[in-house]
Design brief:
Blueprint (H helix, E strand, L loop, with lengths): L24 H4 L8 E3 L2 E3 L6 H17 L4 E5 L2 E2 L11 E5 L10 E2 L4 E7 L5 H14 L4 E8 L2 E10 L4 E8 L3 E3 L5 E3 L8
Parallel strand pairs: 4-6, 7-8
Antiparallel strand pairs: 1-2, 3-5, 5-7, 8-9, 9-10, 11-12
Length: 196
């Protein structure tokens, strides 16, 4: 079937199975757009990213790569399988170096993840602020950062897992300088996102 212009075939949207999709379906469904996530058994497609998102990802990934101690690795835009119906894709993760199972790996286990980072976009605000951190905490991921714009300025919210309740506690809100000692010592200038 041809699209309205007749140039391209019309996209055929996948039909969800009864009960929703499972984590393994992300690897089997043909033609999924890049960065498709699974949340509560439903496919979530990423919208176009803006310049803030791109620069924030680049800054965080580069600074983490320069500071990461042996035994840990920085990965970007890969999924973590939290359960049969949840396979979100954090923007950046800090994982154990031994969690790498080879070149065809598409996901990590929560036990492999030490830090999950989300950079908030307009279309992901509720997921990045509420849904995903709640699920990361319930899965036992010890650290979570959320970076977003606040009045045109970058801000990083830092959380640490309270293991008894499996919820995140805020350990800092950083505007001009992100300085942390866990999961390792790190000093980042979030305002660099706004500079070229």
């Amino acid at each position: 079937m041809r699209g309205a212009t007749g140039d391209e075939p019309e996209y055929v949207w996948p039909r969800p199975p009864v009960g929703g999709y499972t984590a393994g379906d992300l690897d089997r469904l043909p033609g999924l757009p890049p960065h498709t996530e699974l949340i509560d058994g439903s496919l979530v497609f990423a919208g176009p990213q803006n310049v803030f998102h791109m620069r924030a990802l680049r800054l965080l990934e580069n600074r983490l790569l320069h500071a990461v101690p042996p035994g840990l690795d920085v990965v970007r835009e890969m999924t973590v399988t939290l359960g049969e119906r949840d396979r979100p894709e954090p923007d950046v993760m800090l994982v154990g170096a031994d969690a790498d199972t080879g070149p065809h790996q598409t996901t990590f286990r929560p036990a492999d993840v030490f830090l999950a980072v989300e950079v908030v976009s307009e279309d992901s605000r509720a997921r990045d602020r509420e849904t995903k951190p709640r699920k990361y905490a319930a899965a036992g991921i010890p650290h979570f950062w959320r970076m977003e714009e606040d009045g045109g300025r970058p801000v990083v919210h830092v959380f640490e897992l309270e293991p008894a309740t499996r919820t995140y506690a805020v350990t800092g809100i950083h505007h001009d300088r992100l300085e942390v000692t866990v999961p390792f010592e790190l000093d980042i200038d979030p305002t660099a996102v706004a500079r070229r």
